[in-house]
Amino acid sequence: MKIMLDAGHGYNTPGKRSPDGMIEYEFNRAVALHARSLLQNYQNVTVYFAHSDNRDVPLQERTNNANSLNVDIYVSIHANAFGSGGWTSASGIETYIYTSKPRIALQLAQKIQRNLVAETGLPNRGVKTADFHVLRETKMDGVLVECGFMTNQNDLKLLRSEEYRRTIAEGIVKAVSDQFNLKRKSNPSPPSTSGLYKVQAGAFKAKKNADDLATKLRSAGYTPYVYQENGYYKVQVGAFERKQNADSLVSKLRNEGYETVIFLD
């Protein structure tokens, strides 16, 4: 099965940010990275990205790529906004499909909506229809997920959290798995991060030590992953296409007392 994940917008898209400056794309791409890592644990699944960290990919190019690759499902990931630039009370999760209500897209959207509302506790704004380009111009079934409001201060705290981003990715992937009856690999491998800058917080001979560190990091709001390589249990905290993002995480972790390293895989 071929899946295209679309982190909406880009680093330089005008206006797509919270009143205090969080760029929407930061959230969207983080969820897409988590989702790709999770999907790699399923058999016969290939994941493509519609977006790029290097430039704002035009909508037509995104849908053209999806169509030329003949992917089976298109999932566009977003954070919502309301009003003219200030803080508002609008809050919650909503999922969109095209106006013709394609059957498979509707079923998937309902599963995504149900999962995300249950796992986040945010208001259920429902499954809706819209004439969005990525839903209209894709030849395959597509859904667009709005995962909380950047213009709501409480929602924004969640949108900034790595734990919340992981939770959103898990809800989306579970819905895709359920909808298409994906089969898990018998021996899942660690997330593929080829070509990415990896942030590592520790490497241990004893798995318990790695698990203990992962638990500590998780309680601090991070999303660690423990995997075995070259006789060591390694604790990975992040993987980024841009080195500056990895550097930022390393600096934050070191300020909190963690011994971290960064390397290009």
TrEMBL record:
<dbReference type="InterPro" id="IPR050695">
    <property type="entry name" value="N-acetylmuramoyl_amidase_3"/>
</dbReference>
<keyword id="KW-0378">Hydrolase</keyword>
<feature type="domain" description="SPOR">
    <location>
        <begin position="191"/>
        <end position="265"/>
    </location>
</feature>
<dbReference type="InterPro" id="IPR002508">
    <property type="entry name" value="MurNAc-LAA_cat"/>
</dbReference>
<dbReference type="Pfam" id="PF01520">
    <property type="entry name" value="Amidase_3"/>
</dbReference>
<dbReference type="InterPro" id="IPR036680">
    <property type="entry name" value="SPOR-like_sf"/>
</dbReference>
<protein>
    <submittedName>
        <fullName>N-acetylmuramoyl-L-alanine amidase</fullName>
    </submittedName>
</protein>
<dbReference type="InterPro" id="IPR007730">
    <property type="entry name" value="SPOR-like_dom"/>
</dbReference>
<dbReference type="Pfam" id="PF05036">
    <property type="entry name" value="SPOR"/>
</dbReference>
